[in-house]
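Um, can you check?
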Amino acid sequence: MSDLAAPQAAPSVDPLSAKARLRGERLAARNALAPDDRIEKSLQLAEHGQAALTVQPGTIVSGFLPIRSEADIRPLLSALRMAGARIAVPVILDKETIVFRELVPGADLMPMGFGTYGPGPEAAVLDPEIMLIPLSAFDAQGQRIGYGGGYYDRAIDRLHRKGRHPALIGIAFDCQEVASVPAEPHDIRLDAILTESGFRPFNS
């Protein structure tokens, strides 16, 4: 009998635990950006977005109003509106669901939970054709880690079941990139990522 021990299988990694660890690490890195640096990077991101994104009059684009240390994409949303796009932002209906309500200049915003604000129930609910998606972490294959609530995953799945396939563009800072996101079968890849370094499409 050989004295060589049989090779042991590599320990399995729980994707949820791995995602939670990466989420915490990358959000900590984003939080560590100095406020002035974050503003500058947000402006660079917006410039790249204006150069990369083409909209037609009436194109529906969902964005978001920044909370905590997120990139501020309001300059980009304003530029897209000037180009003719209709802008929508997510609002939380319940513990499972977000919808995208039209953001009209001058309209009152109301608290939506988790520190977010959005248009009230009188605003039109729109199905985005381009989605600008906040996230915690991403990799070079287009996989993303959200904030853990699954709101965007469910919203995208709902759009797909309606026969709609919006362009999915992640919004992040470069410091949020990781070597590899532990993808699960239900995860939906991004079509592109937009950071202060530029617009990076992913191969299909």
